[in-house]
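Much of our argument rests on the idea that a fold can be written as discrete symbols. This step matters because it turns folding into a mapping between discrete strings. The record that follows shows the chain in one-letter code together with its fold in token form.
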Amino acid sequence: MVQAGIFTGDVLPPMGADVARRLLRIKRLAWVLDAAFRVPGTKFRVGLDALIGLFPGGGSALMGLVSLYIVWEAWRMGVSRGVLARMVANVVLETAVDTVPVAGDIFDAAFKANLRNVALIERELNGRR
């Protein structure tokens, strides 16, 4: 049996130890990429993805590659092709829009493709129980 995850009240579904470790690792990564820092005076959170994406000439592309690591791990966990396609679409959309100065950075901070993708993985894995 797997212990509680990193989020309050979050319990991982019963699954193989390898899949559970992968899921926990990508949940932590997604949180760091999308929600690690709170904007002072608000409840809004941003992560390294939004901050590094501010750097012109490659920040967005670099973070897109990091986001694809989550997709790769999902593939290794046996997530369906349909879910993988949706995950790739989330990463491509966020990366493409992030190339637009200012507006893209705001979209990137709000869209949170990595947390969306982890939710897709969890939904898929929970449906298999």
User: Anything to note?
Assistant: Residues 1-9 have pLDDT under 50 and may be disordered. The chain has one domain: 18-127. The longest strand covers residues 37-38.
